[in-house]
Amino acid sequence: MLDDLRLRVHRQNLELPRNGLVAGTSGNVSGRDPETRRIVIKPSGVAYEELSPADLVVLDEVGSVVEGTLRPSSDTLSHLVIYREMPAVHGVVHTHSTFATAFAAVGRPIPPCLTAIADEFGGAIPCGGYAPVGWEEIGLAVVAGIGSSPAILLRNHGVFAVGPSVEAAVKTAVMVEDAARTVFHALQLGTPIELSSDEIARARRRYLADYGQP
């Protein structure tokens, strides 16, 4: 069932340890099929090096298991809320990547002091409030705080990234950590200089219109 999406979600889950975004079995990637609205998600507690496409769990929109023998991610309810409330989203990523989560630990957004942040995020990477793990509250906090950004930090927790595809969501998660790492080091030198709102808007428009291939 959903063999192509299953392969893509598996491939993108493996990008998390490859890019240093997770430790152990933490973190997860899911993807939603636009036609059936079914969701493919990483199973709970399975090591990435042992994960196969067949291990992924297929869910319906309310979280019932349609296919799979393993228990889905403990963050499943959060993913379901995000998909329910954000119909244009078809990929969700959750990580505890080190530098981004350091900002989350102090409840601090990542300021728009780099052109890469303006390009990718269109402004500061926001930090939402605290929400307990394992329930819908995390998904609701993501939806409430993410705004027009493709990513959000959650206080005392970590990173959620979303996108129109599972690949786009993982790319965003990688860029969150890259931005967080650079800004963290900049803070050791002084106060980062934020870009103006006009320049952020200009950079974001240019990026969306001109970056990459048509």
Over all CA atoms, what is the radius of gyration?
Answer: 17 Å
Q: Sheet with the most strands?
A: 8 strands, mixed
What proportion strand?
A: 5-15%
Residue windows where pLDDT falls under 50 for at least 5 positions? none
Number of domains: 1
Q: Fraction of residues in helices?
A: 40-55%
Q: Count of helices?
A: 7
Structure description:
Helix content is 42%, strand content 14%. The chain contains 7 helices and 8 strands. The chain is an alpha+beta fold. The chain has helices at residues 3-18, 76-85, 98-105, 115-121, 136-145, 166-189, 197-210, and strands at 28-32, 39-41, 57-59, 65-67, 91-95, 127-128, 151-154, 158-163. The mean pLDDT is 96. The chain has a single domain (3-210), classed as L-fuculose-1-phosphate Aldolase.
In short:
By secondary structure, the chain is α+β, with helices and mostly antiparallel strands. The protein has helices at residues 3-18, 76-85, 98-105, 115-121, 136-145, 166-189, 197-210, and strands at 28-32, 39-41, 57-59, 65-67, 91-95, 127-128, 151-154, 158-163. The chain starts with a helix and ends with a helix.
Task: Please outline the helices and strands.
Elements: H1 3-18, E1 28-32, E2 39-41, E3 57-59, E4 65-67, H2 76-85, E5 91-95, H3 98-105, H4 115-121, E6 127-128, H5 136-145, E7 151-154, E8 158-163, H6 166-189, H7 197-210
Parallel strand pairs: 6-7
Antiparallel strand pairs: 1-2, 1-5, 2-3, 3-4, 5-8, 7-8
